[in-house]
Amino acid sequence: DAKTTQPPSMDCAEGRAANLPCNHSTISGNEYVYWYRQIHSQGPQYIIHGLKNNETNEMASLIITEDRKSSTLILPHATLRDTAVYYCIVRVNTNAGKSTFGDGTTLTVKP
Amino acid sequence: DTAVSQTPKYLVTQMGNDKSIKCEQNLGHDTMYWYKQDSKKFLKIMFSYNNKELIINETVPNRFSPKSPDKAHLNLHINSLELGDSAVYFCASSTSPLELFFGSGTQLSVL
């Protein structure tokens, strides 16, 4: 799996958009970018994934640069319940792929 | 109606004991996983089963033995527990390798 780099922490004001960056400069052509988050004392929760195109679902948007070396997860209107550790992971789409969740970004949404 | 449930939630035991953690999913997924989250919050895959067949077995001591009686269950048995085994263990299941559904975790404390 390609290595990812995320800032260790970020703050965001409640109601504002939270933009979480991720660098994955060694990504290969068949590797997907996907995001999970872990709210304190809970299991990780899937958010979104993408290969090349930008993606949007009810939780977030994923913007992937044209060269695919970086991406940004956008929470359009952050709430206090979005305070969590956000993990960016890059891996192939097979069951044989290995998933290790690295350090992640601790997002704190403030009132 | 919990999707992925694991028991117990907390497990406190002495060094040298043998213990088991149970996991069940009612999502109809074919693949199940065990992850370990250490004190630094690094989440790493241990095992993965697909239709009761072991497909991922990371560098985990032989004291850890997963058992999948059917595709809805993946239990983790640990022999001769050591202090370093203290961690939070998460069970997960998926139908797609990109979207994992995690349980709420079992916090294991070895004294």
Question: How many helical stretches of chain B?
Answer: 0
Decide which structural class fits the backbone of chain B: mainly beta
Termini separation of chain A comes to 37 Å
Largest sheet geometry of chain B: 7 strands, mixed
Shape of chain B: globular
The two chains with the largest interface, and their residue counts, are: A-B, 26 and 26 residues
Q: Give the SSE order of chain B as H and E letters.
A: EEEEEEEEEEE
Q: Describe the main β-sheet of chain A briefly.
A: 5 strands, mixed
Oligomer status = heterodimer
Proportion of residues in helical segments of chain B: under 10%
Contiguous uncertain segments of 5+ residues of chain A? none
Number of strand segments of chain B: 11
Rounded to an integer in angstroms, the radius of gyration calculated over CA atoms of chain A is: 13 Å
Write down the overall mean pLDDT of chain A.
91
Major beta sheet, strand line-up of chain A: 1-10-8-3-4
Poorly predicted tracts of residues of chain B: none
Shape of chain A: globular
Q: SSE string of chain A, helix = H, strand = E?
A: EEEEEEEEEE
Count up the helices of chain A. Answer: 0
Q: Give me the secondary-structure category of chain A.
A: mainly beta
First and last CA, distance of chain B? 34 Å
Structure description:
- The complex is a heterodimer of chains A (111) and B (111).
- Chain A has 111 residues and is an all-beta fold.
- Chain A is built from no helices and ten strands.
- Chain A has strands at residues 9-13, 18-23, 31-38, 45-50, 55-56, 61-64, 70-75, 84-92, 100-101, 105-110.
- A five-stranded mixed β-sheet of chain A has the order 1-10-8-3-4, with no helix packed on it.
- In chain A, strand 6 and strand 7 form a beta hairpin.
- Chain A starts with 8 loop residues before the first strand and ends with a strand.
- Chain B is 0% helix and 60% strand.
- Chain B is globular.
- Chain B has no helices and eleven strands.
- The mean pLDDT of chain B is 91.
- In chain B, strands 2, 4, 5, 6, 9, 10 and 11 form a seven-stranded mixed β-sheet that branches. Chain B has a four-stranded antiparallel β-sheet with strand order 1-3-8-7, with no helix packed on it.
- By secondary structure, chain B is mainly beta.
- Chain A binds chain B through residues 32, 34, 36, 38, 41-46, 49, 85, 87, 91, 93-104, and chain B through 4, 31, 33, 35, 41-45, 48, 50, 55-56, 58, 90, 92, 96-105.
- Strand 9 (100-101) of chain A pairs antiparallel with strand 5 of chain B.
